[in-house]
Design brief:
Blueprint (H helix, E strand, L loop, with lengths): L1 E4 L5 H13 L3 E6 L4 E6 L2 H5 L9 E5 L19 E3 L2 E3 L3 E7 L6 H13 L2 E5 L17 H14 L3 E4 L6 H7 L2 E4 L7 H9 L4 E4 L6 H13 L5 E5 L17 H8 L4 E3 L1 H5 L2 H13 L4 E5 L17 H17 L3 E2 L6 E3 L2 E3 L2
Helix pairs in contact: 3-4, 6-7, 10-11
The structure holds phosphoenolpyruvate and manganese (II) ion (MN).
């Protein structure tokens, strides 16, 4: 069961609902998004039905949700959610580009990649400080130093930062530096991590596991929502199939399916699905035309020297076509591609960095 509160519900009214449910032997999980508060109920549904919760002050609707995920289901929330990341919207109405290096390697590389990101149309900067690598011998990321570099580049460029957290123990530290926490494909069912990012109060980018069904993915999102956080963006990043010509198979159909089942925004990652530079633009186009709310792409100033995922990073020559294509396709889909508004003082001149 889910309680949808009215926009004017006060904290005292929400607390009164929670206490009423608890007195009846149930549990109530309050989840907050930028524009809404919903309360998920756990316990005896018949008993809840007798509480007359629908008549309590601050309550808009009480609904029985038939799907296995409740808070992220579209059943109680027909409008699609817009998640805001430090003021940058992701959701219906816009196409949001997130771009940056796979891994933060140095201040210069990250700043150069951020400049490419801005040229590509990005309004958010991606970059990993903690890298979940298949091999323990591969570059694992700069850790805290990487987070500091991201914060420095944000100060320089004005781009809010999206970065991955791979352990529940690191959530507070990463949340201190980042504007959005990424949970990667390999951690989609790390339930302790999902609950920790759910408690963090930061928007979360939840990637689909490479072998996860859409239902498992939405149930993973439900873990985050149940711990209080409705600011979740889903990311389709390719699933593992028999096909070897691409790194993973981008499941474009996941975009409309997820939008049908859930109110959460969904973006695609053409870099980690295609795995090759020349596939990134066509897959980005496919995702946007399928209705994706945005894309997240790898860019690198010098992929030949990249410590992680160089072959899939866009380079300077690719960037203008990507920017043009995203602007055109956003318009074709009746959406807006927001442009990076920040103009900074660089060497005495005011200009886009
Ligand atoms: C990444 O975005 O750098 C990454 C590791 O992606 P995924 O979790 O989708 O493999
Ligand atoms: Mn990567």
């Amino acid at each position: 069961m889910v309680i949808v509160t009215s926009p004017s519900a006060t904290e005292a009214e929400i607390r009164a609902v929670v206490e009423c449910v608890e007195r009846a032997g149930g549990e109530a999980f309050v989840s907050r998004g930028v524009r809404q508060v919903v309360i998920g109920l756990l316990g005896d549904v018949e008993r809840f039905a007798g509480l007359n919760l629908g008549r309590m002050p601050g309550v808009n609707r009480v609904m029985r949700i038939t799907s296995s995920y409740k808070l992220v289901s579209r059943e109680h929330h027909p409008e699609r959610t817009v998640v805001e990341v430090a003021g940058v919207p992701i959701g219906a109405g816009t196409v949001t580009v997130i771009a940056g290096p796979c891994a933060v390697e140095s201040p210069e590389q990250t700043l150069d990649a951020a400049k490419l990101a801005i040229r590509s149309g990005a309004t958010l900067l991606r970059g990993g400080a903690f890298k979940p690598r298949t091999s323990p011998y591969a570059f694992q990321g700069l850790g805290l130093r990487g987070l500091q570099i991201l914060a420095e580049v944000r100060a320089e460029t004005g781009l809010p930062v999206v970065t991955e957290v791979i352990s529940a123990d690191d959530v507070d530290m990463v949340a201190e530096h980042a504007d959005m926490l990424q949970v990667g494909a390999r951690n989609m069912q790390n339930f302790a991590l999902l609950q920790a990012v759910g408690r963090s109060g930061k928007p979360v980018l939840l990637k689909r596991g490479m072998n996860a069904t859409i239902e498992e993915w939405l149930l993973a999102a439900e873990y985050i929502a149940q711990r209080g956080n409705l600011d979740i963006v889903l990311c389709e990043r390719g699933i593992r199939t028999f096909e070897r010509a691409t790194r993973n198979t981008l499941d474009v159909s996941a975009v409309p399916v997820v939008q049908y089942l859930s109110h959460l925004p969904v973006i695609i990652d053409p870099s980690h699905s295609g795995g090759r530079r020349e596939l990134v633009l066509p897959l980005s186009r496919a995702g946007v035309v399928a209705g994706a709310d945005g894309i997240i792409i790898d860019v690198h100033p010098d992929p030949a020297t990249a410590l992680c995922d160089g072959p899939q990073a866009l380079i300077a020559e690719d960037i203008d076509e990507m920017a043009r294509s995203m602007a055109e396709l956003a318009a074709f889909m009746g959406r807006t591609l927001l442009r990076h508004p920040i103009v900074r003082v660089v060497g005495g001149d005011r200009r886009i960095v």
